[in-house]
Amino acid sequence: METENTVKPMDLYKVHVAVVLKGSRDPEGETILRDVVLAGGINYVAKVVSGKYLSFTVKSSNGEEAVKLVTNLCRDLRIFNPTVHKLIVLGVEYGGSSGC
Amino acid sequence: METENTVKPMDLYKVHVAVVLKGSRDPEGETILRDVVLAGGINYVAKVVSGKYLSFTVKSSNGEEAVKLVTNLCRDLRIFNPTVHKLIVLGVEYGGSSGC
Fold first, then answer.
1. Do residues B16 and A18 lie in contact, with contact meaning Cβ atoms separated by under 8 Å?
2. Regarding beta strands B11-21 and B85-97, do their DSSP bridges make them parallel or antiparallel, or are they unpaired?
3. CB-based burial of residue B77 (10 Å sphere; 0-12 exposed, 13-18 middle, 19+ buried)?
4. pLDDT (tens digit, 9 = 90+) per residue, A28-85?
5. Chain B residue with the nearest C-alpha to that of A37
6. Burial of B96 (0-12, 13-18, 19+ CB in 10 A)
7. How far apart are CA B45 and CA A59, in angstroms?
8. Which among A1, A26, A43, B37 is least buried, having the fewest CB atoms inside 10 angstroms?
9. In this complex, is the C-beta atom of A18 within 8 Å of any C-beta atom belonging to chain B?
10. Residue B7, pLDDT above cutoff 70
């Protein structure tokens, strides 16, 4: 029989984020567009943005909290530099129970 | 009056993708987890995966086609190396009419 003090098991959530440059210039994205995509004969691409992809699998009680935990840790641990970068949250997916 | 030959204007879609390592090892992700996250005193992160983020803004008639265009161009232009990398489609968003 469960008691009232039973600890709710935390679930795992995978939060997908990207760190991209803040300003209007993105030399890497521009180069991929010009020297790879357009030079490769593809004419339906208007813009390419490049950046760093990271996913964090975190223990959390819900997806919204997982996103908050990840955005906070990225800011607090200087995973990105807020002066020149911005963090984009690309999505969160349920990753099963962590059993703890 | 519109004729039957009126060309449907194409819309712009932004497709978000990530290029990550295929195997079980991801030295960069492991280092971020060990030397940044855990060393920073954060104990709710189970895993970190690192990779390259790219977004492609493409002219397309719908989102599904936009994703197909981007995955094909990434494969054909060797944006990633299928021997060691895999491409993850993280999402697609509507980006307005291109007017052409």
1. yes
2. antiparallel
3. middle
4. 999 999 999 999 999 999 999 999 999 999 999 999 999 999 999 999 999 999 999 9
5. B77
6. exposed
7. 6
8. A1
9. yes
10. no
Residues B46 and A98 sit within 8 Å (Cβ to Cβ)? yes
- Tell me which residue of A90, A82, A94, A85 sits closest to A26, measured CA to CA: A85
Query: pLDDT class for B54, splitting at 50, 70, 90?
Result: very high
Tokens read off for B19: 């290029």
How many residues are given for chain A? 100
Q: CB-based contacts of B20: which residues, under 8 Å, 6+ apart?
A: A53, B26, B49, B50, B51, B52, B85, B86, B88
Nearest Cβ partner for A53 among B18, B36, B91: B18
Question: In this complex, is the C-beta atom of A63 within 8 Å of any C-beta atom belonging to chain B?
Answer: no
Instruction: Give just the sign of the alpha carbon dihedral A76, A81, A84, A89.
Output: negative
Cα A46 from Cα B47, distance rounded (Å): 35
Mutate: best of A13, A16, A43, partner B, most B CBs <10 A? A16
Looking at the complex, report in whole angstroms how far the Cα of residue B100 sits from the nearest Cα belonging to chain A. 11
